[in-house]
């Protein structure tokens, strides 16, 4: 490939570890207690994880809440790949059936979950998708990391860590179920 046509791949430098496996675990335990406290139990609560890393987070939180409340919590999955605003709106839409999330969200107090909250565009798309599947009574957002730089009026009710970042930085959440390792890293784009 000539120098003119060569596509330069961005380079990243690791700046440090923000959370270890045990810190992630402790944070999820705290968030499980916060949810139970704010919802006065968990009977009407349904957890919905956004693919990809929101899903294992929702499953883990479901187990933790069940341990506290002694009854199972519905845990569902939202795949928003067809709802992204960077894709053509004329493109294919997923088949919409109430069961596609994993349970019927209508009338439920939904806690939408993702690993990182940045511009808010993923959550906007997730809300679009969620309301195609039913009419929840309420929707709250839980994220492991809020790194700021919102481009939409979206905020999380439950936040693991608030990490102020520059736009050149990236938060990398690594979870065993997806990445085969467990930690949160701060990474920086280098010229
Ligand atoms: O607030 P936003 O600007 O939308 O950014 C947050 C989203 O970015 C990441 O997903 P990414 O698109 O990197 O996909 P991945 O999780 O599947 O790697 C992260 O998991 C959030 O879903
Ligand atoms: O820093 C960021 C921004 C968006 N999504 C991530 O996973 N990390």
Fold and architecture overview:
The chain has one domain: Rossmann fold (3-Layer(aba) Sandwich), CATH 3.40.50. Helices cover 27% and strands 30% of the residues. It has helices at 21-38, 54-69, 121-133, 176-179; strands at 11-19, 45-50, 74-78, 109-117, 138-146, 158-162, 169-174, 183-190. The strands form 2 sheets. It has a 5-stranded parallel sheet with strand order 3-2-4-5-6. Strands 1-8-7 form a 3-stranded antiparallel sheet. The chain is globular. The site of uracil (URA) has 5 residues, from strand 7.
- Total beta strands: 8
Strand content: 25-35%
Q: Give the end-to-end Cα distance, rounded to a whole number of Å.
A: 21 Å
How many distinct domains?
A: 1
H/E series: EHEHEEHEEEHE
In the CATH hierarchy, the architecture is: 3-Layer(aba) Sandwich
Pfam families: Pribosyltran
InterPro entries: PRTase-like (IPR029057), PRTase_dom (IPR000836), PyrR (IPR023050), PyrR_bifunctional (IPR050137)
Catalytic activity: UMP + diphosphate = 5-phospho-alpha-D-ribose 1-diphosphate + uracil
Function: Regulates the transcription of the pyrimidine nucleotide (pyr) operon in response to exogenous pyrimidines.
């Amino acid at each position: 490939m000539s120098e003119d046509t060569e596509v330069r791949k961005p380079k990243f430098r690791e700046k440090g570890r923000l959370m270890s496996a045990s810190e992630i675990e402790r944070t999820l335990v705290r968030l499980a207690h916060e949810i139970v406290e704010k919802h006065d139990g968990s009977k009407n609560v349904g957890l919905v994880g956004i693919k990809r890393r929101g899903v294992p987070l929702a499953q883990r939180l479901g187990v933790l809440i069940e341990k506290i409340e002694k009854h199972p919590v519905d845990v569902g999955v939202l795949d928003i790949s067809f709802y992204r605003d960077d894709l053509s709106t004329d493109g294919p839409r997923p088949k919409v059936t109430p069961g596609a999330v994993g349970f019927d969200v209508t009338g439920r107090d939904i806690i939408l979950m993702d690993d990182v909250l940045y511009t808010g565009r993923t959550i906007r798309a997730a809300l679009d998708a969620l309301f195609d599947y039913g009419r929840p009574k309420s929707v709250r957002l839980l994220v492991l990391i809020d790194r700021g730089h919102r481009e939409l009026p979206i905020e999380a009710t439950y936040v693991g860590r608030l990490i102020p970042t520059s736009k050149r930085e990236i938060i990398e959440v690594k979870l065993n179920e997806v990445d085969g390792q467990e930690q949160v890293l701060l990474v920086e784009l280098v010229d």
